[in-house]
Amino acid sequence: MGIPIVIRMVDVLDQPLPSDASVSIQLETPSEILSHATTISEPFGLTPSSETKRLTVTVEHPDYASQRVTVLLGTEPYYWDNRGCELVKKQAGYELKITLGRVRQAPVTPPPWGEKTSGDKPGAFSLQEQGSPKRYAVLGSMLRTDTVVRMLEDSSAGRIAGTILSEASKEGWGRLHTKDSQPIIPEDHGGFLWLEYGGVTGKRLDEPRFLIAVWAPSLKERIPEEGLDYIVFFSPSTAAEGYPRSAYPFRSNYPYVVSPKDTMSQPYLNLAYRYLFGSGVLVQQSIASGKPAVVVMPIFPAVPDNPKAAELMWQPFNSQEGLHRLLLEISQFLHGFGYKDGSDFRRWQGASAPEDGMPEMPGPTAMSSVNQPRPKIRKVTVAGFSSGVSGALRVIDNVKIKDAGRFPSAFFGIPNASSGREFAELWSEIWDLDFSLNEALTAIKRETLEKKLIAWLNSGRDKRRLRMYHSGYTIGNVRPSQLFPALAALRKIVTVPPAAGNAWAEEWRDPDERWSLACFSTSYLLASVSTPDIKPVMPLTTDSNANNVVHPFTCALGFGHASKLR
After folding, report:
1. What pLDDT digit, counting tens, does each position of 32-54 carry?
2. Which of 30, 340, 381, 525 is the most exposed place for a label (fewest CB within 10 A)?
C-alpha cells in the first residue's frame, strides 16, 4: 500500500483557483508509466503504489502560467524539483501544494534579416553569438560595459546634519559633494529579466498582459527571514512621450512593436534600457549604493488620446492592491526561477526565454527534500520621475483597483479587506525624482501633491521616508519655500550656499532624517567641461536645451542618493 498524497492548487495569495485547471498526472514504476488527466480546481487525492518511483504533475490553466513538478517517491524523505511547490507531511500521508502565478518570462525572437522591419513582433529581439547563449538585443552590451558612477555623498564636516551641496561658485560637479564608484559591470552584480504579467497563456486574449522589467541583485548571503526589498520605478507617461498607441486590452502596438517603421527599434523595451542601464544608470547606482534591492519597472502602454482611455493609464499599478499583487507575483516567479544567494544568472538576460512560441528553456534539475517558501517582501519603495507622478502619487489614495471590471481583483489585486493594511506596512519610501508640477500635464495640483506626501509620511510614524529632488525644469527656478509652503513650515535644517549668478541650490533635511528636499536651479546643474566617462553625464552650459536636459539628470542624481539613504 502506498502513501496517500493530496494535491492542492493555489494562487500566490494561497487561495484556491477560481475555476478548473487541466491536470496531468504521470506515475512511473520500474515496469510501466501510468498517465491520467483530469479537470479540477479542488484538492484531490491519489495513492501511488509502493512500487511508484516518480510522480509528475502538470497543471495548466487559462489564467495562470503552467506548472510542473516531479516528486521522487520510494524512500523517505521525498525529493522534488520545483521550488515553487511544497510537499508537507501530514498525519495521513502528504500534501503537495502547487502555486500558480500570473507571470512568465517574456518571449524573444531573432531580429529579421536586414536592418528594417515594422509592426508588432512576437517578442523582444534577441541575439546569439556562436558558442554563447542568446541574449536580449541592445541590452547585451550595456550589461557588459564597465561604468563609473558618480553619486551624491553627504558631507557633515562641522555641521549638525549632512548635505549634498557645496559652493555654487565652483565648476560643474564641484557644486555637489560626490563620490565615484569603482567601475561597475552590471552582469557581475545581478541579472535582468523581461517578464509578462496578466493574461500570459494566450488563452485570454481579451485580458491585458503587461511587460515588466526586473533587475535582481546578486545575493552574497541567504535571503533574510524578513525578505527582500523592492524599488518600483514609474517612468514618465508613454502617452505623453509619443509611443505607439494601444487600446485595451493592449494586444496591438504593445509591447514588442517596432517604431518608427522600417527600423529595428522596440521603443517600449528601449524605455527600460535607457533608464535602468543607459543614461539613467539606475541599476548601476543601486549597485554602487551597497544596499541592493530588486528594481521593478512596469512598462505602461500609451493609451489612445481620449478621456475614457486615459482613465486606464497606470492601472492596475496605481493602486496599493495592484502594486502589492504585482510584487507578490514577481517574488513567486523569481523564487521558482531559482533566484537565491549564489545565483549565477546563466539563465537570465534572455538565455532561457521562450522563442517564437516555443516553451521556455528548462533549468537544471534542482531536487530538494526541504520546503523553500517564497521570500517575503520586506520593504517597498515607490519612485517616480516627471509625469510618472501621475501613477506613483495615486497609489496613496487608491487602496483598491479603480477599474475592477477590466482588472479583476482576483487576478490583478488582493480581494480582501486587509490588502491596504498589508501593503501599508511594507511601503516604506517615496522618491520624488523631479515630479512634474505641471497641473495641465498630470491633473495634480502642486498643493495637493505636497499635502498627500506629508500625510503619507506621517501616517507611517517613524517607519516611512520621503525623498524629493527638483530641478529648474519642474520648479521654474523658483525657490522651494514659494512652491512647498507646507514643507517649509515643518521643523528642518536648511542648507543654502551663496548663489553665483543664476546658479543656486537649497536643501532641507528633517532632523530625524524622515524626509529631505533638494532643489537646484538649472544653472547649478550645468558644467562647462564634459565628463563623458562619468555617469550620469552632467549637462553642459552650451546645451541649447539645458533646461530640459537637467530634468533626467536630476532623476539619476536623486535615485542614487536616495538609494544610499535607504
Report:
1. 999 999 999 899 999 988 899 99
2. 30
